[in-house]
Structure formats: C-alpha cells, structure tokens
Design brief:
alpha+beta; 12 strands; globular; binds protoporphyrin IX containing FE
Length: 425
C-alpha cells in the first residue's frame, strides 16, 4: 500500500508525490483538509490517475469544464456500474448482504438510457414545482413546530435537532410515510451511507439488519398503495405508473434507497452548512438579516459552497481523451463537484461565501446532464422555508464550537454542530 492511502496520513497536500495522491481518502474529508489537495490537482494535474487505493484504480476530474464535459456525455460515461467510488471492502460485504449487484441495484441513478429516463419520469412529477408548491404549507407548518421546540440560551446539536428533523419531516411528507416514524428515514439513510465504526453502524451485520427492516417497511407501503386509489406521494406514483408498477423487488428497493439517501444527507448537510457558513462569514449573516429577500440566493450559494455530494462516479464505455490523458474503456472516473465548485476559471472568488452572487444557481452540486438532481426544487423549497421561519424567530444562531464531519468522500457534511440560540426575536 502506498503512503497516500494509509488511513490517518495527513501529510501536507503539497508534499505528497503527485502520483500518490488519492483524493478519495475519507480521513481528509473528516479532518477538513481536502481543499489543498484539490487546489493542487486543479493546478498541476486536473485529470489525475490514482493507480492503487482502497477504491481500486480511478481517475479524478477536478476542473469545472472537464466535469461538465464528463457529466453531460452519458454515452461515453456510464452510470450502470455505480455512481460513487466504492470502498472495495464495503462492496464485498454489501454483496454478501444483498447478493451480487445487478444493473439498477441502486435505483435509476445507476441506469443508463433509455431505461433510466422511463423510471425518472415516473418520479419526476412528485418533485416538480406544482407538487412542491402543494407541499410547501405543510412543510412550513412542520418546520415552525420544530423551531418552536428548540431550547433558548442552551447549547444543543443543530444537526440532530434541526437538520435531521426537518429533512426527515419533508421526506416523510414526500413518501406519505407515517409521520411519527420519520426518524427511521434518517436512521436508514445513515446506515446505508456509513461504514462500520462510523455514524450509527456497528458492524456489517448491523447494517444488513437495518436494510432488511427498511425494505420490509417499504414493501408493506407498496402493498397498501398499489391496492389503493393513485395518490401524489412517491410510492403511490411508483406503484401506479406503467413504467414502474411491474418492476422487480430489487429495483423497487434500489429506488427506495436512492430516494431516502438522495433526499436525506444532501439537504441535511445544506441546512447545517448554512449555519456554519453564516457564522464563519458574519458580514453575510448581517446582510441576510437586513434583507431576507436574499434567502433564495443564500440557499443556492450554500449548496455551491457546501457541495453536499463531493463527487459522482462513472465508468468509461470507450477510450476518451481529456486533458492530454487517455481514459481507457472500463476505467472508473470521479467527477469532483467539490473541486469544480472552487474552480476560479468558472466562479469568481470561489472560496468566498457570498450570498448575493450574480448567478447563484451556477454550481455543479446538482450535477448536469440526464442524471441532474431530480429533487433539486424540493431541496430549495425546504431550505428557503426553514430560513424564512428562522429569521422570523431568532435574531442569531451562534456556532459555539467546531462541528464534527462525516468520514466519507461522497457525503460531504457534518455529524454534529454545537450551537446556542441566545434569544427569540
Ligand atoms: C441540496 C440538496 C441536494 C443535492 C446537492 C443533490 C445532489 C444530487 C446529485 C449530485 C445528483 C446526481 C447528478 C448527476 O449524476 O449528474 C442527484 C441525483 C438525484 N437526486 Fe439529488 N440532491 C439533493 C436533494 C435531493 C432531494 C431532496 C431528493 C429527493 C426528494 C433527491 C433525489 C435525487 C434523485 C432521485 C437523483 C437521481 C436522478 C437521476 O438519476 O436521474 N435529491 N442529486
């Protein structure tokens, strides 16, 4: 094993020989020391090959333009063999639990055209603007309840009491999932995305048990909805749409996991990221308080600045020339959105958090091309509402210590974040 892949190695990014850089190492993300690695790669080796790692060999694409070129070329870059760099140990264990992976085993995000689009279109109306607008009043009411229950003048964990609660609440609304059991959605998502020893996962068996519980619950929900009148929730849509109503159990389970994970960590970590960023850039917080109409652009700026999913991966279906290198057919490629969003050739002053940027939705965090995030309007609605309700209630949310971060180079976010709300408005 080369030095760059050893867990716990935090040698400075500029001291490591270029060919040994393995940007997917989870420990650098957890320690928040990853940015210098990407700065160096963008500068010195924007299409970078890691020959050996815990994820196998893979390419890293780190500049904005190359990421766009990759993400929008779905013929040359397939999603069918997984969309995240997978830790090889995790893959082997997961296969023991769930059986060998099959095409679409993680829902339509791991399908190519034309089958991908038929599935995506079955889900899209639930998360499209008209349905999102219908959901908004309920989300606002539930968000208000969560905020009204927060302690004043006492330290608490923002991730647990707010970010997870709000995201679980919105997902439960989307699925028409039993509201009192909403935190199960958080739990299952955390069980899927974490390795043993991290988050709530104690062992591979523990992870397997959680998945079976999740699939059992969603199996029952399918059976209820398929025999009922079609509704506007996601499960009912899947159970009644001609493109999905006959899908096999494994595809349904993959779709459920996709929707739970897709809608969970991402939004959760944006909610946490907004509190973090507004505290690190207090002049931006002042601007927001003075002019709440900036909430919409603040939400987009947070999604760029945080980049809740650090990368998406593809496999080349043919040889592709990029940045003077040849990516060979069958090679795995990581598009590092977290790096592209800091590329100064595309974003002015990219390291600054500026809530009134001229084009705030110009970011890579939702991806591009046929797989561009189908839930992006739900995410923006939820984040906008929470901030409207926060500003009505609390003059300030104070970060009182550094957050702890996820041990992951895929989910880019926070495990805990200590805050105090000094007073109500
Ligand atoms: C800030 C919040 C969010 C971020 C940053 C985010 C990010 C992403 C990214 C990067 C992709 C893949 C894009 C690509 O490969 O080109 C994606 C796909 C997807 N997201 Fe999101 N997402 C967010 C919120 C949500 C929500 C709330 C939902 C569900 C309600 C959701 C459901 C999905 C689904 C189903 C896909 C697969 C789309 C496809 O393959 O066609 N996401 N998301």
């Amino acid at each position: 094993m080369n030095i760059a892949v050893k867990a716990g190695n935090t040698a400075d990014a500029n001291d490591i020989p270029l060919e040994q850089i393995n940007p997917a190492r989870a420990d650098r993300f957890q320690a928040n020391t990853i940015e210098p690695v990407f700065e160096r790669l963008r500068r010195e080796d924007p299409v970078h090959f890691t020959a050996q790692s815990e994820f196998g060999p893979y390419w890293s694409i780190t500049r904005w333009a190359d990421i766009m070129a990759t993400d929008t070329n779905h013929e040359a870059f397939s999603s069918a063999d997984g969309i995240a760099l997978a830790n090889l140990e995790a893959v082997a264990e997961q296969e023991k639990i769930m059986g060998a992976r099959r095409r679409g085993g993680a829902g339509f995000i791991t399908m190519d055209e034309p089958e991908h689009m038929t599935r995506r279109q079955a889900v899209a109306p639930t998360v499209a603007p008209p349905n999102v607008a219908k959901m908004a009043p309920l989300v606002r009411e539930r968000a208000g309840q969560i905020l009204d229950s927060l302690p004043i003048g006492e330290q608490f964990d923002w991730v647990d009491l707010v970010s997870k609660e709000l995201t679980a609440m919105t997902l439960a609304t989307l699925f028409d999932f039993p509201f009192e059991q909403r935190r199960k959605l958080t739990y299952w998502s955390d069980m899927v995305t974490n390795m043993p020893g991290h988050g709530p996962v104690q062992s591979w068996q523990h992870k397997g048990e959680a998945l079976f519980e999740c699939f059992g619950t969603f199996g029952e929900l399918w059976n209820q909805r398929v025999n009922a009148e079609p509704g506007i929730d996601l499960i009912s849509m899947l159970a009644h749409n001609p493109a999905t109503r006959n899908m096999d159990v494994m595809e349904y389970q993959g779709t459920v996991i996709l929707l739970i994970v897709g809608g969970n960590d991402t939004t959760r970590n944006t909610i946490s990221g907004s509190v973090y960023a507004l505290n690190k850039f207090p002049e931006q917080y002042d601007k927001l308080r003075a002019d709440p109409s900036l909430i919409t652009s603040m939400v987009s700026e947070t999604i760029r600045w945080q980049t809740p999913l650090a990368h998406m991966a593809r496999v080349a279906t043919r040889d592709v020339e990029m940045g003077g290198k040849t990516i060979r057919k069958g090679d795995r490629v990581a598009m590092w959105y977290v790096s592209g969003n800091r590329d100064e050739s595309a974003i002015e002053n990219p390291n600054a958090y500026l809530i009134d940027r001229a084009r705030p939705r110009q970011h890579l965090s939702f991806g591009f091309g046929v797989h561009r995030c189908v839930g992006n309007r739900v995410a923006e609605m939820q984040l906008g509402i929470i901030w409207e309700e926060i500003l009505k209630r609390f003059p300030r949310i104070e970060l009182v210590g550094e957050p702890t971060r996820n041990y992951s180079s895929f989910v880019h976010g926070y495990e805990t974040m200590p805050v105090v709300i000094p007073s109500r408005a």
